[in-house]
Amino acid sequence: MTVSKTSVLVLDCAEPEALAEFYASLLGARAQRGTDPDFIEVLDHDGVRLAIRRDHGYAPPSWPRPDDAQQAHLHILVAQEDMDEAEREAVSLGARPVETRDNSGPRDVRTYADPAGHSFVLAAREGRSSVT
């Protein structure tokens, strides 16, 4: 028998409320606090996508990272024709560009740091008018 499981990526930060609101706004989702005041889930119509956890000793990751460091980052998939608008939206919400090479076309990948310093990318998906 297989036990039913769900996975969620959890980002640590010093201010979970602010970071949860950043990602909820960026992803068109909502932030929901449960019984743990230091843990907030970011949900969309399909359920939990991301969680934010308070770490009282949090230090943001660095970019670019040292050669031997392992580091996770989010890929947020965007229709290719919507990349510029997605970039404007992310920056207006508090994202900081960290790699600003000139990208275009189906391999357009733009790297940012969220307000707490975590890396994420907006990645173009050719031929997709909506992302689910």
Quick rundown:
The protein is α/β, with parallel strands linked by helices and 132 residues long. It has two helices and eight strands, in the order E-H-E-E-E-E-H-E-E-E.
Q: What is the percent of helical residues? A: 10-25%
**What distance separates the N and C termini?**
30 Å
Helix/strand-derived class?
A: alpha/beta
Largest sheet: 4 strands, mixed
The DSSP helix count reads 2
Instruction: Report the sheet-strand fraction.
Output: 25-35%
Q: What radius of gyration results from the CA coordinates?
A: 16 Å
How much is the average pLDDT? 82
- How many strand elements? 8
Uncertain runs are 127-132
Structure description:
Helix content is 17%, strand content 34%. It is α/β, with parallel strands linked by helices and 132 residues long. The strands form two sheets. The chain has a four-stranded mixed β-sheet, covered by helices on one side. The chain has a four-stranded mixed β-sheet with strand order 5-8-7-6, covered by helices on one side. A hairpin with a 5-residue loop joins strand 2 and strand 3. The longest helix is centred in the first third of the chain and has 12 residues, at 16-27. It starts with 8 loop residues before the first strand and ends in a 7-residue tail after the last strand. 23% of the residues are buried.
